[in-house]
Amino acid sequence: MSSALERRYHLLLGAYPPEYLDRHEEEILGTLLDGAKPGQVRPSLREASSLVVAGIRARSRLATAHGRPRLWADSIRLAALLLLASVLSDQVAMGSEPVALLATASVACGIVAVVIGASRLGALLVASALVTSVVATARWEVLLPASWEYDVACIVTIAVALGTLSFLPGTNRPWRWWLAVIAIAMPFLYRVFWLDVTDATLFRIPASVFELTLPVSILCASALLLRDPRPAIAATVYAALHLVVPITFGVELAGIGIDAGVGLLTLGLTVMSLAVSIASSRRMAEDQLERSRGAT
């Protein structure tokens, strides 16, 4: 059998958690190699995708097996990561003013802190981004020019949530480093493709699609595919804040660039995320029940 095929299978098996591979890697690898066709040097696309999905599902099962506190902590951390990326998107538009650069760097470092599991440090960093701007300039708009009410509420919410999570034992586990890379890079990319009504010559993506529809849809699809409610819960929190904060502050939707259509879209995304959260939670409970029956 081709050693190249074995290496590629071994690479795909990296999607599984290490503790699972310690017990089952040889068995899975042997089954895959026995079923390979003569002369085959690489897995088929279907086989590769199945292995990756199964591996991530195994990681999800292992993570959610630690009980509801861990599940909710992971969900809130993921929602905080999304909200920080959304706030960072506004700050990127501020340009090169020293205060804006300091606030932007604080939020970006806060994103890294969330990913590596340093929630207390992340709370301090995102709080410093707000306090530095207010103390140095005595006006909110320098930090948050477009919709300061929403971003201020998000920053305060994120800081409180991360500060609370930092005191819960066993909830601040490190995540993959590429999550921080994506969360920091996406706001900069968004500013490249942002809807600019003054520039009709460039193709640009509306904010409602980039900041709401796209991430919420991806998270909900991931929750259904992986049978893991955490992404859908994070999407529910993320979409709900986009809906609740303007109403709570009594701000006219059109005044912060959110028209009635986007408001209805946000409401629909919130309801969809909540429904997916419930459905994926039930599926997770059914899977756990089946595994417990199989173990007995």
Short key terms for the protein model shown above:
mainly alpha; 74% helix; 296 residues; 0% strand; globular
* Residue share in helix: over 70%
What is the SS-derived class? mainly alpha
Residue-averaged pLDDT? 76
How do the helices and strands follow one another from N- to C-terminus?
HHHHHHHHHHH
How many structural domains in the coordinates?
3
What sort of overall outline do the alpha carbons produce when their principal axes are compared?
globular
Distance between the termini: 37 Å
Number of helices: 11
Strands, count: 0
Strand proportion, as a percent range, falls in under 5%
What's the gyration radius in Å? 22 Å
Can you describe what's shown?
The chain is mostly helical and 296 residues long. The chain folds into 3 domains: 3-27 and 42-61, no CATH class; 68-187; 194-296, no CATH class. Helix content is 74%, strand content 0%. Helix 4 packs antiparallel against helix 7, helix 5 (98-116) packs antiparallel against helix 8 (177-193) and helix 9 packs parallel to helix 11 (260-295). The longest helix is centred in the C-terminal third of the chain and has 36 residues, at 260-295. It is globular. The two termini are 37 Å apart. Residues 138-146, 195-203 and 250-258 have low confidence and may be disordered.
List the helices and strands and how they pair.
Layout: H1 3-12, H2 18-34, H3 45-64, H4 68-92, H5 98-116, H6 119-137, H7 148-165, H8 177-193, H9 207-226, H10 230-248, H11 260-295
Helix pairs in contact: 4-5, 4-7, 4-8, 4-10, 5-6, 5-8, 6-7, 7-10, 9-10, 9-11, 10-11
